[in-house]
Amino acid sequence: MGDKTITNLKLCAAKSRRNVLRMIQAGGCGHIGGAFSCIDIITALYFYKMNIDPANPKKPDRDRFLLSAGHKCMAQYGVLAERGFFDKKILDTYGKLNSKLPGHPDMHKLNGVEGNTGALGHGLSLACGMALGLRSRGSDSTVYVVMGDGELAEGSNWEAAAAAAHHNIENLVAFVDKNGLQISGKTSDIMNFEPLDKRFEAFGWNVMEVDGNDMEQIIELMDRLPLKNGKPTLVVANTVKAKGLSMGEGKVAYHYWKPSKEELETVIRETEEIIHHLESTVKEVS
Predict the structure, then answer these.
(1) CA-based nearest residue to 237, from 214, 216, 211, 219
(2) How far apart are CA 74 and CA 30, in angstroms?
């Protein structure tokens, strides 16, 4: 994997974070912690891995993506906007009545959203159904789903995990955005599911692990997916809550953020500096 590709993907992720900040500026608040922890994975899926076409978002042979932890939707919106699925002006409607960008993803409002999510624990079940449906049609498409580690306490996740293994749904890849925190504190204190890898292996899944905020590691892993060995695949993505928000990284208080004007201006300025640096680096390696 070339340095230019990795740097370009880092730049796309930084611009997607800037899009999230633009939405927070418009709406005044949002679930930034989880959005920023998983945005590198979602960027890599949309800009590198998935077979998609923003000009033809419903093409039959496309790969599918579901964000099970729907409250992290600003990450998906930010990436979709950067990928060209909709005009970035729409970002400025976040938090407004009748916006195409509601607080949880809505497939009836926005191109690129494959399912309505946000009731935690449902995304993996939806992904199983999609993957089975694609397989029954003889499609080679893959279904990708991002879950939060905090939502694993919902029992429907484990019913879906059992069903996916039983039905050999090898065209299903699930990522757990394991940032270790949820709204009430540490996930290990609230409902501990460690060792997470052994639990999914016991259900009959392939299990892989990655630093979910390291783009080079993410791409190396995605080059191996899907494994196509008769099993679904679970990727444990170790991430940092609010990654990229200097004042909030790894802090539970930034699960949901209502910044002051000064705080938001500071973070926007920092993000712009990162983008400028990455743009300069891309030019140097071209």
Answers:
(1) 211
(2) 8
CA distances 271 to 7, 20, 161, 284, Å, are: 15, 11, 37, 20
Nearest CA to 255 out of 18, 74, 99 is that of: 74
Helix (H) or strand (E) holding 208, with range, is strand 206-211
Q: Beta strands of 10-104 (E only): which ranges?
A: 64-67
Answer yes or no: are the C-beta atoms of 114 and 65 closer than 8 Å: yes
Say if pTM beats, i.e. exceeds, 0.70.
Answer: yes
pLDDT, one tens digit per residue, over 77-126 is: 999 999 999 999 999 999 999 999 999 999 999 999 999 998 899 999 99
Burial of 194 (0-12, 13-18, 19+ CB in 10 A): exposed
Which residues face 143 on adjacent strands? 64, 172
Q: Which residues contact 198 (CB under 8 A, 6 or more apart)?
A: none
Residue 160 CA to residue 255 CA, distance in Å, equals 26
Ordered domains of the chain (ranges, CATH): 3-285 (3.40.50.970)
b/e per residue 150-179 (b: at least 16 CB within 10 A): bbbbbeebbebbebbbeeebbbbbbbbbbb
Pairwise CA distance, residues 45 & 62, whole Å? 12
CA 101 to CA 260: how far, in whole Å? 22
Parallel, antiparallel or unpaired: strands 185-186 and 181-182: antiparallel
**d(Cα 120, Cα 157) in Å, to the nearest integer?**
9
Collapsing DSSP states into helix, strand and coil, what is residue 20? helix
CB count within 10 Å of CB 247 equals 14
